User: Fold this.
Amino acid sequence: MKRRIAILGSTGSIGTQALEVIASNPDLFEAEVLTAHSNAALLIEQAKTFKPNAVAIADESKYAEVKEALKDEPIKVFGGYNSIVQLMSLDSIDMVLTAMVGFSGLEPTIAAIKNKKNIALANKETLVVAGDIVTKLALENNVSVYPVDSEHSAIFQCLFGEHHNPIEKIILTASGGPFRGRKRTDLESVTRDQALKHPNWTMGAKITIDSASLMNKGLEIIEAKWLFDLTPSQIEVVVHPQSIIHSLVQFTDGSMKAQMGLPDMKLPIQVAMAFPNRIKSDFPRFNFMDYPQLTFEQPDTETFRCLGLAQHAMKEGGNLPCIMNAANEVAVAAFLNKELRFLEIAEVIEQVMQTMSFIAKPSLDDYRQCDLEARALTKEAVGVKSL
Ligand code: NDP
Ligand code: MG
Assistant:
């Protein structure tokens, strides 16, 4: 039986790589649903190639174009963000790969879990915003959440066969991004294009900026807390510029397990999609002789303040990670629009985190409200009306 996958965000970096995995393993996987925000041209092309049951485009102004282009295909076409959420109840979906970016991933992920679909989770923001609610729902609905993020996939792979053994701590590796080793004065005038040049990974724009600011690692420690049920003191970060060791687990006997390989997101994507099996692949293999030195450094939280903000948000919990995430999304968009300087990203996020009222046990509606409020406050702080 082929596993029928709904790819939310099929036109993005993770989405297109997931389709490559499907194309290489036609006996194992089928694309059942594909969704995009506004890239109609690529969604149409993907639909013609992969012949999914349904496609949805969130931007309603693009619906007519997609509908017209696919009129001779037996493919259902939907428009609007809510249609993505509604599609999660399709009986024919076996697994949902959440590869949308930011808060937009939350509602469809919740709908998918309520419909008892297993999740391959790339959209880390879902767990950052509402990890308590999402993990509880997954448990109640007997749904598995398989991590796609490379670090979390590494931890998950280290835990194969170890589920009964307690974890002492985990160590998430970070490449350090394009500005590793720089100090605050060096970063005052860095540009959007410099920040978009990641040394090891090619990814969507938002996560690439998050990697440059170390907010990505900040989001990942919170993601790890929820995925592996850890306390903040059990989660460490080490900078490892070569991105070969994808992360490590230390057990209570002191033994450490690491998962290694060349940086290529197709591997964690297919690990999540094929669980519990490993699929043969022809991805390039790692060779120690090409990497005579694997190096490690302490993260510089003085310069890269976003990581410290996320550590604080993780410890405080409640609605603080949700506020931080929303402020970060707006600040990163403003930076990408050249309306905010790089170092101002952390400043604005901190300001918004300090301004909003703390809620210790938020409901889903509280999270929705906090997200909106934090966005509005961040836009005000940035002075941008266009976002
Ligand atoms: P991209 O920006 O490349 O792609 C995002 C996808 O989501 C696109 O298909 C986009 O559609 C769609 N999308 C964006 N906003 C909305 C919205 N409001 N409603 C519906 N669809 C939307 O992102 P990435 O693939 O890089 O990242 C996706 C997620 O995976 C993020 O949460 C990221 O943190 C995580 N991740 C990514 C990694 C990577 O290597 N890229 C690694 C680890 C995690 P359109 O193309 O039409 O705009
Ligand atoms: Mg990662």
